[in-house]
Design brief:
- This protein is α/β, with parallel strands linked by helices and about 220 residues long.
- It has a single domain, classed as Rossmann fold (3-Layer(aba) Sandwich).
- It is built from 8 helices and 7 strands.
């Protein structure tokens, strides 16, 4: 699937609903505060990056796929920065961004633990990372197919274990997109079911980086 085809999915009724649902979950869990700076790691074609930029966030999108970054640049004005780069070796100093986001990107790389450590390192205030959920209807319907081929699906327990030993605090996990078909029933249930249920197609973990004080030289 090329970048234009992938991005066009967000123009379909189902794609738009899923995109907006995931955006609002990320916005809540990041405690988004425009005009703070935000890095989107594994941004793909930049749909979510652009969505955050539209709220007034100073957004930067990073992806390892140069063709998709080139597509993202063509869709957006100069206010949003786009960079080709590896999530496991982010080319930024510690605490470079107020918030750092990554949605369903770490599922497709080896060394997701290293990428997670990098996300925590460059976040100043909050981070939010989303995984495809193995305890979801989407997993049973789509695992191994199409855009999901090669993805690693995680449970909430596995995600918590990925964070063990990392300098984070106040870690919470929520989910969204309980019925991924995007029909009227899916939209209604999304309003009624709490995000604390672990069965949505997207599992998102969010928290704060814990900065240890520098050792005293006295």
């Amino acid at each position: 699937m090329d970048a234009a085809e992938y991005d066009a999915w967000y123009d379909t009724p189902r794609g738009r609903w899923i995109g907006e649902t995931e955006f609002h979950l990320a916005q809540r869990m990041l405690d988004s505060r425009p005009p703070e700076s935000m890095l989107d790691v594994g941004c793909g074609t930049g749909w979510l990056t652009r969505r955050f930029a539209a709220t007034g966030m100073a957004a930067t999108g990073l992806d390892i796929n140069g063709d998709w970054i080139a597509f993202a640049r063509r869709q957006n004005d100069a206010k949003t920065a786009w960079l080709e780069g590896d999530a496991r070796r982010l080319p930024f100093e510690d605490q470079s961004f107020d918030t750092v986001l990554s949605i369903a990107a770490l599922c497709f790389i080896e060394g997701e633990r290293q990428a997670l450590a990098e996300i925590v390192r460059v976040a100043r205030r909050r981070f939010a990372v989303g995984w495809l959920n193995r305890s979801s209807l989407l997993y049973h319907a789509k695992a191994g197919q199409g855009a999901y081929r090669g993805a690693t699906w995680r449970t909430a327990g596995e995600i918590r274990r990925l964070f063990h030993g990392l300098p984070v605090r106040n870690l919470t996990i929520q989910s969204a997109v309980f019925l991924p078909n995007g029909g009227w029933l899916a939209e209604m249930l999304e309003e009624l079911l709490p995000g604390t249920l672990p069965n949505g197609a997207l599992l998102m973990a969010a928290g704060e980086p814990e900065r240890r004080p520098a050792p005293s030289q006295g």
